[in-house]
Amino acid sequence: MRDRERERIAAVIADAVRGAEPGEVPGRLCAAAVRLLPVSGASVSLCGEGMPVPLSASSERAAHLMEVQATLGDGPCLRAAETGVPVFASDLTSGRDAFRWPVFAQQAAAAGVRAVYALPLGDRTVCVGTLDLYRDVPGELAGDEVRTAQLVADVVMAALMTLPLAEDDGLRPPGEEPWLSALAADHDVVYQAVGMVMAQLGVSADEALARLRAHAFALGHTVLDEGRDVVGRRTRLDDTD
Among 199, 204, 206, 192, which residue's Cα sits nearest to residue 237? Predict the structure, then answer.
């Protein structure tokens, strides 16, 4: 049964990515996950240094919640990346899940999302990122839905790992950026901003990222927006402390 289900999922995903350029694949994988599961949105992110690096999402709302967790440095998706095990927040409006991540839960509920299911792309030993699923109504996934979600995550990871990553893979026209660099380029600015905050405040990288996140949250910005302001010299954190 599991083999047949894996074949079915693989066929749906193969159809979704057929003819896609490498940079389009993550978005198509998210859309396929929404078709295969009882969820309203999906996103894929990779593990970065201190924060997730969003790759793509099935909708603007899913992309927003992915950025919210990157800004807060907290949430079920980050927990799944840290532990390498699935994290299911089945009710962000009340109970245990709402208290585990109170700020994220509030932000998610405000966006109309009541449950999040985060699956690691990998395991406890090696986790390269997460597949994050969002649903408009609270509730647990049924046993067969959990199995399907895990199979989807497995196939998504396999599909991502087959994409050309290297600068010299020889598969791109001259001067074209590798797909991963192009998708993750926005978040390079966050790391540049962290370096500038380190210099401004004389603090460690972890402290600089924490300060950047806190300042972004206080202004209602994402950490990406705040990073752009710091790099663009529109904001100096030492002027705010």
Answer: 199
Residue 45's SS3 state is: strand
CB 130 within 8 A of CB 33: no
Tokens 């990288």 sit on residue: 205
Express each pLDDT in 26-75 by its tens digit: 888 899 999 999 999 999 988 876 677 888 899 999 999 988 888 888 89
For the chain, the C-alpha Rg in angstroms (whole number) is 18
Closest CA to 39 of 121, 119, 129, 157: 119
Q: Judge contact between 128 and 117, C-beta under 8 A.
A: no
Edge to edge, the sheet with strand 41-47 lists: 52-57, 41-47, 127-135, 115-122, 87-89
C-alpha 17, offset from chain centre: 19
Q: Give the chain's domains with CATH numbers.
A: 2-161 (3.30.450.40), 179-239 (1.10.10)
- The values of phi and psi at residue 143, to 5°, are -55, -45
d(CA 105, CA 40): 17
Which residue, 135, 129, 181, 134, is CA-closest to 153?
129
Termini Cα distance of the chain:
59
Q: Measured in whole angstroms, how far is the alpha carbon of residue 136 from the centre of its chain?
A: 18
State how far the Cα of 201 lies from the Cα of 210, in Å rounded to an integer: 12
Instruction: Tell me how crowded residue 178 is: count the other CB atoms within 10 A of its CB.
Output: 19
Q: Output 176 or 133, whichever has higher pLDDT.
A: 133
